[in-house]
Amino acid sequence: MKKILLSGLKPTGRPHIGNYFGMMKQMVDMQDEYESFPFIPDYHALTSVQSAEDMQKDIVNVVIDFLAIGLDPEKVNLFKQSDVPQVTELMWIFNCITTMPYLMRAHAFKDAEAKNKDINVGVFSYPILMAADILIQDTDVVPVGKDQRQHVEMARDIAEKFNRIFGETFKLPESKILENVEVIPGTDGQKMSKSYGNTIGLFAEDEEIEKAVMGIPTDSKGVEESKDSEECNIFALHKLFSSEDELGDIKRRYVEGGMGYKESKDILIKNIKNFITPLREKRKEFADNKEFVLEILRKGGGVARQRAEEKMKEVRKKIGVELN
Description:
Blueprint: E1 4-8, H1 17-29, E2 35-40, H2 42-45, H3 52-68, E3 79-80, H4 86-95, H5 100-103, H6 107-114, H7 121-124, H8 126-135, E4 141-143, H9 149-166, E5 174-176, H10 206-214, H11 233-241, H12 244-256, H13 261-287, H14 290-319
Parallel strand pairs: 1-2, 2-3, 4-5
């Protein structure tokens, strides 16, 4: 039997190339190797998206985005989180065995606290809902970026604690992080994130690509001066979009002198356009077929919900709420 693979993409606006290389591409590349459950964590998105219109639009858009990059609905079970109500039932059970000091270790919570945000309970308990998402499907592998590794570790901790208290029930999932894309750099050198405003949209128009790349900050070194490629935000993105031969040539000309940042940006723009244009055209083929999208979610939701209910029958029996 194939191992179970699960990962989610929140419906919080349009995806960027960091989302693609960090998780989405892996779901496509591994859809033949695993029994895959890509899902749309719409309840997770409620921590920041509180508009019904935006939520509905973004859920449909995420499905279209997945289809455009090559996810095959005949090979995977694509569903949305809210179609599996057993997940929130399991979350409550996990709430009751998880302590507040433990959750206060979560990076997302600490980051929000450091920024003095008015933190809602959803942000605080986010790792527990994510653990329920993962564990209820008997997941073996979770493709994530480096910043999400802690959430998978917390899911393992919660599974181990439940198993210790109530008996062996849950698998211990493993995170799958590709080293070369564990952190996707943004246009400013930080991790690419919508909250930092340093993204390049996965389906960006040519003008958007040009504006984003031309806005990458650089030092003041001239064309003939030697440059350190590893300190250059432009070169960091070249690693994702430029060929090995091209990378080697750019790096050599950086070191020896003879390449200015403007030329480097022009080459990067060309390569990003070559990558994005066919994806953008493919997306247009699916964009007007909402009924097809909804049918994919209905089918995937049915499979995920049935599996979740079977797991919850076992859980309810283990905790003693199912009476004989």
